[in-house]
């Protein structure tokens, strides 16, 4: 897995959503449809701290969604309020710092569904800040060891494999406490093995991205 993103105006372009993943498989390791032969399912999870104050679309979004744009204190940095005994910065600029997984927050990232017993490949990456991807109930193989936490520095990428053993709806989130509290979590579903039939077609996930095959001879 490789991250792609803009270097033209890196901060603003990425804040506007110009970031994603390119998956390159070794020649001879994929099926006719480009999926790897050694796994049953693949997912991409990019943990990204997005600063929408830097987005090219900020002014457009304010005009579209704010009823009184002229009186919006968009440059205010601090506006603290007490929320259940905790001091929280509720300023407009602070609210535009989004802790996302694939651009989604607070459990809304779609597509992470698999069957019990399936071999699952996760392509993970971090952007914007340091993150720590954590799966509940199942483990992944990272550098030859089983773990449920994968460290992700900015632009760091890890491809990890999971055998989905425990069925249920489980959390996938960043283990940095402030990021989790700000919405950097979602859920993945492991459907019970009893629901699998031998004639059942694979389920395509919205988290699946196209593949590009490389020739190993090109690598020096």
Quick gist of this model?
By secondary structure, this protein is mostly beta strands. It is 10% helix and 40% strand.
Provide structural commentary.
The protein is mainly β. It has a domain at 38-55 and 94-206: Cupredoxins -  blue copper proteins (Immunoglobulin-like, Sandwich). Helices cover 10% and strands 40% of the residues. It is built from 4 helices and 16 strands. It has helices spanning 10-15, 58-65, 92-95, 177-181; strands at 2-5, 19-26, 41-51, 80-83, 86-89, 97-101, 113-115, 119-127, 131-135, 140-142, 145-147, 149-152, 157-163, 168-174, 185-191, 211-214. A 6-stranded mixed β-sheet has the order 6-3-8-13-10-11. The chain has a 5-stranded mixed β-sheet with strand order 7-15-14-9-12. A 3-stranded mixed β-sheet has the order 1-2-16. Residues 198-220 have low confidence and may be disordered.
H/I helix tally = 4
**Strand order across the largest sheet:** 6-3-8-13-10-11
Any idea of the CATH class of the domain at 38-55 and 94-206? Mainly Beta
Total strand segments: 16
Please, what is the CATH homologous superfamily of the domain at 38-55 and 94-206?
Cupredoxins -  blue copper proteins
| Rg, Cα atoms, Å | 20 Å
State the helical fraction: 10-25%
Question: Could you say which structural class the secondary elements and strand pairing correspond to?
Answer: mainly beta
CATH architecture of the domain at 38-55 and 94-206: Sandwich
Major sheet attributes = 6 strands, mixed
- Secondary-structure element series: EHEEHEEHEEEEEEEEEHEE
Principal-axes geometry comes out as globular
Oligomeric state of this protein: single chain
Which ranges are low-confidence, i.e. pLDDT below 50, for 5 or more consecutive residues? Answer: 198-220
**What portion of the residues fall into strands of 2 or more residues?**
35-45%
Mean pLDDT: 88
Distance between the termini: 18 Å
């Amino acid at each position: 897995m490789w991250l792609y993103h803009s270097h033209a105006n890196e901060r603003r372009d990425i804040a506007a959503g110009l970031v994603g993943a390119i998956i390159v498989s070794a020649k001879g390791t994929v099926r006719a449809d480009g999926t790897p032969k050694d796994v049953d399912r693949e997912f991409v999870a990019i943990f990204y701290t997005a600063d929408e104050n830097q987005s090219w679309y900020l002014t457009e979004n304010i005009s579209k969604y704010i009823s009184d744009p002229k009186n919006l204190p968009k440059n205010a940095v601090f506006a603290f309020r007490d929320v259940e005994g905790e001091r929280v910065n509720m300023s407009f600029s602070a609210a535009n710092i989004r802790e996302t997984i694939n651009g989604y927050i607070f459990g809304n990232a779609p597509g992470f569904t698999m069957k019990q017993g399936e071999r699952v490949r996760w392509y993970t990456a971090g952007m914007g800040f340091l993150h720590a991807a954590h799966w509940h109930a199942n483990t992944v193989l990272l550098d030859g060891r089983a773990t449920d936490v994968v460290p992700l520095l900015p632009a760091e990428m890890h491809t990890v494999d999971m055998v989905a053993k425990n069925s249920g709806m489980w959390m996938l989130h960043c283990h940095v406490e402030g990021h989790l509290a700000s919405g950097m979590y979602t859920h993945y579903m492991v459907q019970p093995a009893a629901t699998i039939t031998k004639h059942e077609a694979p389920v395509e996930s919205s988290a699946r991205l196209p593949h590009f095959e490389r020739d190993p001879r090109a690598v020096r």
